[in-house]
Write a structure and sequence with these properties.
About 30% of the residues lie in helices and about 25% in strands. By secondary structure, it is an alpha+beta fold. The chain has 3 helices and 5 strands. It folds into 2 domains: about 35 residues; about 80 residues, K homology (KH) domain (GMP Synthetase, Chain A, domain 3, 2-Layer Sandwich), CATH 3.30.300. α1 packs across α2.
Length: about 140
């Protein structure tokens, strides 16, 4: 997979891949307009939405309604580093949701590919490449 990241103006930075564009910006206090989430907020959201995809799949496979189900994600910062030190997810279900599936919901959310990549991070290689401008 290839993504193209560009700079449409201000403090905005967008990622383009396939037919999609993920827009990011910085808040006004960070020099942006606050027109989109920050890249880091988008990263954090990817964990919750990824877990949600697995919960959704679990429910669909069993014919269970997702009405009233939601995931509450909380981040706790490590005071020593200022970085996220712990991520908690609560899968909230309505009283009508079958109790026998509670643990299975947790196991399904635990399969999240984003979480698994965090547990076994990829190697990064960052380079500068000079490219001649296209002649049009």
């Amino acid at each position: 997979m290839e993504m193209i990241v560009d700079f449409p103006g201000g403090a905005r930075v967008d990622a383009h891949f396939g037919q999609f564009t993920v827009k990011t910006d910085q808040p006004p206090m960070g020099g942006g307009d606050g027109s989109a989430p920050t890249p880091f907020a988008t990263f954090l959201a990817s964990m919750g939405t990824c877990a949600g995809i697995y919960v959704l799949g679990f429910c669909r496979n069993r014919g269970l309604s997702t009405d009233g189900i939601r995931i509450i994600q909380r981040m706790q910062n490590n005071p020593m580093t200022g970085m996220v030190g712990k991520i908690e997810m609560d899968i909230q279900v309505p009283p009508s949701f079958p109790e026998k599936y509670y643990d299975a919901l947790i196991r399904s959310a635990d399969q999240c590919a984003v979480k698994k990549h965090m547990e076994h991070p990829p190697e990064f290689e960052i380079r500068t490449v000079v490219v001649e401008p296209e002649i049009r």
